Amino acid sequence: MSGLVYSYTRFSDPRQASGHSVQRQTDFAEKWAKDNGLRLDSELTMRDEGLSAFHQKHVTKGALGTFLAAVEAGKVPPGSVLIVEALDRLSRANPMDAQAQLTSIVNAGLTVVTASDKQVYSRESLKKDSIKLVISVLYMIKAHEESAHKSERVASAIVGKCKDWELGKFRGKLRQGKDPQWLRETPDGWELIPERVDALRKAVALYLAGQSGQDIAAKLAAEGVSPFNGLLSSAHFYKVVKNPNLIGVKTVVVETEDVRGEFALKEYYPAVLSATEWDDLQAVNGQRGRRGAKSTIPHIITGLGITYCGYCGCAMSGQHLFGKIKNHGDKLKDGYRRLLCAAKQYGKACPHPVSRSVAPVERAIMNYCSDILNLRALYGGDRSAPLREQLKAQRQRAGEIAEQSGNLMNAILSASSGVAPSMLVEKMSELETEKRTLERAMAHTEAQISALARNDVNGVQAKWAELAKGVQELDYDARLQAKQLVADTFERIVVYSTGVRPDDENRFTDVVLLAKGGASRMLRVDKSGVWQALEDVQQEVMVA
Question: What is 4-146's CATH number, 3.30.70.100, 3.20.20.70, 3.90.1170.40, 3.40.50.1390?
Answer without folding.
Answer: 3.40.50.1390
